[in-house]
Design brief:
This protein is 68% helix and 8% strand. It is an alpha/beta fold. A five-stranded parallel beta sheet has the order 2-1-3-4-5, sandwiched between helices.
Length: 281
């Protein structure tokens, strides 16, 4: 899989199979040609797979949810479940009309959005152009919404382990993303906000610990330098005492040597006196 494909905007199409399958298939094919990555529950859920869990994953991974409005879709429990999950995850939702439908049956929050009309009698090409244009609006912000949602979910599943939190430049980018929100964009979820806030708290805690370690190292270095200075001062004092002691010993030795010479000379004088006295007798 190339880098170009992996960075495509992911679009999940929610539809009712009974009256929307053909148009949903056509939409996904057209979106693939236009450079998007489209998903349908028919294509992307294997036989025997837990459909609810798999749909949860597909919608969480999607950057945008396209809701195909048909009479059966607005009455479908599964479509309602998909729409509720998309709302809970604050996904961008784009409603498209597949078949004429009583507007009163359309969920209120969808009625407030601009519909793109693919109903019979309307140009598919024109509708596709409008859909592609809507999908490309704020594309980078929408992608980051999806990415942070997945990271927050993984952090929650892993019992909020600190190793999964954002750091440094990645954290700064997430905080900037949050600050750049506008009213027309999907709101950040509580999970995303908690994840970013926990990341900021953890980073501040790491910085505090690092500052504390640096302060402790600085104190240790200061104490070590003071100890070395005291040791050097003691060595200098010891050397002075050693020199003084050496001078004293030398002086004592010289004094003792002088005394010995004087004693010898005295003995010599006494011997000479004795010899002279004996010779006179």
């Amino acid at each position: 899989m190339t880098a170009e494909i992996t960075t495509r905007l992911k679009v999940f199409v929610s539809y009712a199979r009974s009256d929307g399958s053909a148009l949903a298939e056509e939409l996904v094919t057209a979106l693939e040609v236009a450079g998007f990555e489209g998903y349908l529950d028919r294509h992307d859920i294997s036989a025997g797979e837990d459909w609810e869990q798999r749909l949860d994953t597909l919608i969480r991974q999607a950057d945008t949810v396209v809701f195909l409005i048909t009479p059966n879709a607005v009455a479908s429990e599964r479509c309602t479940w998909e729409l509720d999950l998309a709302r809970a995850l604050a996904k961008r939702i784009i409603p498209v009309v597949g078949l004429p439908c009583d507007e009163a049956r359309v969920p209120v929050d969808l009625r407030r959005l601009n519909f793109i009309n693919f109903a019979p009698g309307n140009s598919f090409a024109r509708g596709l152009g409008q859909l592609v244009g809507a999908l490309r609006l704020d594309l980078d912000w929408i992608r980051e919404h999806t990415r942070l949602g997945e990271l927050a979910q993984r952090w929650e599943i892993r019992e909020r382990v600190e190793a999964l939190l954002l750091r440094d430049e990645e954290l700064a980018a997430a905080q900037e993303w949050l600050a750049n929100w506008r009213a027309e964009l999907p709101a950040a979820t509580e999970a995303q906000r908690s994840y970013i806030a926990a990341s900021a708290d953890a980073q501040e805690r790491r910085h505090d610990e690092e500052r504390q370690r640096n302060d402790e190292m600085a104190r240790a270095n200061t104490e070590r330098a003071a100890a070395l200075a005291r040791q050097e001062q003691a060595m200098r004092a010891l050397r002075r005492r050693t020199v003084i002691a050496g001078i004293g010993v030398a002086a004592l030795s010289a004094g003792l040597a002088g005394t010995a010479v004087w004693a010898v000379k005295q003995r010599e004088r006494a011997l000479e006196f004795y010899i002279r006295r004996e010779s006179l007798r």
